[in-house]
Amino acid sequence: MKKKVGNRIVELRTKKGWNQSDLARECGKDRQAIEKLENGKVNPTIYSLYEIAKALKVDFYQLLKF
């Protein structure tokens, strides 16, 4: 499940033409945190997913649509 969420974030991020640093800057995280999340190495909190969805300007549930 972690990997699926991570892949979805990568998909949405790349659609915007952003790299990991761009997303990190927009949601107030560091690039390494985004990398770990995208690679499925950490369990994201609901709040982290909310912040990422807000930064990507997508509905929260879009992150969980796979």
| Total domain modules | 1
Count, helices: 4
Quaternary arrangement of the chains shown? single chain
Mean pLDDT: 95
Radius of gyration: 10 Å
CATH class equals Mainly Alpha
Distance between the termini: 10 Å
Number of strands: 0
What do we call the CATH topology? 434 Repressor (Amino-terminal Domain)
Extract low-pLDDT stretches: none
Provide a concise account of the structure shown:
This protein has 66 residues and is mostly helical.
Write the topology of this structure.
Layout: H1 2-15, H2 20-27, H3 31-38, H4 46-56
Helix pairs in contact: 2-3, 2-4
What does this protein look like?
- The chain is mainly α.
- The longest helix has 14 residues, at about 1-15.
- The protein has one domain (about 1-65): lambda repressor-like DNA-binding domains (434 Repressor (Amino-terminal Domain)).
- The model has no long low-confidence stretch (mean pLDDT about 95).
- The termini are close together.
- The chain has four helices and no strands.
- The protein has helices spanning about 1-15, 20-25, 30-40, 45-55.
Summary tags:
4 helices; 66 residues; 434 Repressor (Amino-terminal Domain); mainly alpha; single chain
